[in-house]
Amino acid sequence: MAICNKCGKELHKDEKAIYKRLINRAAAEEELLCKSCLAEHLGVAVSVIDDKIKHFKNIGCTLFV
Fold first, then answer.
1. Residues in CB range of 20: below 8 A, 6 or more apart
2. Residue 1's pLDDT is what?
3. How confident is the chain (65 residues) per 10-residue block, as mean pLDDT?
4. SS3 for the chain, per residue?
5. CB burial string 16-46: b at 16+ within 10 A, e below
C-alpha cells in the first residue's frame, strides 16, 4: 500500500501512475503524492490532473494498465 508523502492519504493506482508519468518514472513509493498534493505541487487544479489521467489512459500509456 502506497501513501502520499505529504498528507498520508492512501493512493489509488492512477495516482501512483500519474505521479510517475509527470514527475519521475522511477519514483519510489515513499516519494509519491496524491492527486491533490500533486496538483498543489504543480500549481494546477485537481481537474487538470484528472484530465491528464484520462488522456494518458486514452493513448494507452502502460503506467495506467
1. 26, 27, 32, 63
2. 82
3. 95 97 95 97 98 98 93
4. CCECCCCCCECCHHHHHHHHHHCCCCCCHHHCCCHHHHHHHHCCCHHHHHHHHHHHHHCCCHHHC
5. bbbbbbbeeeeeeeeebbbbebbbeeeeeee
Cβ count within 10 A of residue 4: 18
Dihedral, CA of residue 61, residue 40, residue 31 and residue 8, to nearest 10: -110
What sign results for the dihedral spanned by CA atoms 54, 57, 61, 65?
Answer: positive
Sign (positive or negative) of CA dihedral 25, 43, 39, 32: positive
